[in-house]
């Protein structure tokens, strides 16, 4: 499940931009344990949603949910984690109580202090959920040395989690084609977070369009892996990109699907090391 699935499109604003609203019915189903989705599948993106929304409330205030909804999503997360056997008892129940909590705990006037509060509460949850996913998926596909808990990388990891789930249950040619589609989606997400025009666009050249995933990723390789000592590594990364891109033309069986999936997971891990100094 992806984080975006917790929201529904609700029309357009005065600028003609699409707006969205929390899917309250889905949140209620998750809280009650109904709806047909596995708890682990729901818990991972829901934990990231809670993390992002409470961090936004404590910093720039640009949340996607209101105060009542903040209480409902936190309650849903508590419920699904309880079913997974994970203890989760945050010291606040919604946005307003979070504000009161940070005021009592030395975070007045400090966005970073509020980020630290949210991280101290939710980072252990992310880690426990990652451990559960590792147990569920480790017999099928490779695992990177770490996963992201911030920024656009979270969405990349959501796509990888979807890839793992689809590969695990894949049995038919159609299933394996869906794995190939997941590989393409991951590369698109990766391109969006790894490529930064100010850093990777060559002087005098036009910026590759967003849909030209391969061109953007190759720009990152050229900018981050310069010089003769990195020649072999550039070849490795480009070869992995080519292998993963081949998924666009179909993955007709389990062997081809596994090769494509492992290639794209390898690419994500390598690009994180290239462009994220804190990884």
Quick structural summary:
By secondary structure, this protein is mainly alpha-helical. It has helices at residues 24-32, 39-58, 67-83, 95-104, 111-137, 153-169, 173-194, 197-200, 213-224, 231-245, 254-275, and strands spanning 7-12, 18-22.
Write the layout of secondary structure elements.
Layout: E1 7-12, E2 18-22, H1 24-32, H2 39-58, H3 67-83, H4 95-104, H5 111-137, H6 153-169, H7 173-194, H8 197-200, H9 213-224, H10 231-245, H11 254-275
Antiparallel strand pairs: 1-2
Helix pairs in contact: 1-3, 2-3, 2-5, 6-7, 6-11, 7-9, 7-11, 9-10, 10-11
Description:
It contains eleven helices and two strands; from the N terminus they run ββααααααααααα. It is mainly alpha-helical and 279 residues long. Strand 1 (7-12) and strand 2 (18-22) form a beta hairpin. Helix 2 packs antiparallel against helix 5, helix 9 (213-224) runs antiparallel to helix 10 (231-245) and helix 10 crosses helix 11 (254-275). The model has no long low-confidence stretch (mean pLDDT 85).
> Cα distance, first to last residue?
24 Å
Strand order of the largest sheet: 1-2
User: How large a portion of the residues is in β-strands, by DSSP E?
Assistant: under 5%
Annotation field: number of helices: 11
In N-to-C order, the SSE pattern is EEHHHHHHHHHHH
Q: How many strand elements? A: 2
Rg, Å, rounded: 20 Å
Q: How does the overall form come out from the CA principal axes? A: globular
Helix fraction by DSSP (H/I, runs of at least 4): 55-70%
In terms of per-residue confidence, which ranges show pLDDT below 50 for 5 or more consecutive residues?
none
Biggest beta sheet summary: 2 strands, antiparallel
Helix/strand class: mainly alpha
């Amino acid at each position: 499940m992806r984080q975006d699935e917790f929201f529904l499109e609700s029309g357009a604003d005065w600028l003609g931009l699409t707006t969205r609203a929390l899917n309250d019915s889905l949140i209620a189903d998750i809280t009650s344990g109904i709806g047909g989705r596995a708890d682990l599948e729901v818990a991972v993106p829901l934990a990231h949603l809670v993390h992002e929304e409470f961090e936004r409330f404590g910093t720039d205030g640009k949340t996607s949910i209101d105060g009542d909804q903040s209480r409902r999503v936190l309650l849903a997360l508590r419920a699904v984690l309880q079913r997974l056997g994970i203890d989760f008892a945050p010291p606040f129940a919604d946005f307003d109580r979070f504000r009161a909590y940070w005021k009592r705990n030395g975070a007045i006037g400090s966005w970073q202090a509020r980020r630290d509060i949210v991280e101290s509460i939710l980072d252990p949850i992310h880690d426990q959920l990652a451990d559960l996913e590792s147990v569920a998926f480790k017999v099928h596909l490779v695992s990177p040395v770490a996963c992201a808990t911030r920024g656009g990388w979270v969405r990349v990891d959501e796509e990888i989690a979807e890839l793992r789930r689809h590969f695990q249950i894949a049995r038919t040619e159609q299933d394996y084609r869906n794995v190939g589609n997941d590989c393409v989606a991951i590369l698109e997400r990766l391109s969006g977070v790894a490529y930064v025009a100010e850093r990777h666009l060559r002087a005098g050249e036009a910026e590759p369009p967003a849909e030209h995933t391969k061109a953007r990723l190759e720009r990152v390789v050229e900018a981050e892996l310069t010089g003769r000592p990195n020649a072999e590594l550039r070849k490795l990364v480009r070869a992995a990109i080519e292998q993963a891109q081949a998924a666009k033309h179909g993955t007709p069986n389990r062997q081809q699907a596994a090769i494509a999936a492992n290639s794209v997971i390898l690419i994500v891990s390598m690009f994180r090391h290239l462009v994220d100094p804190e990884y």
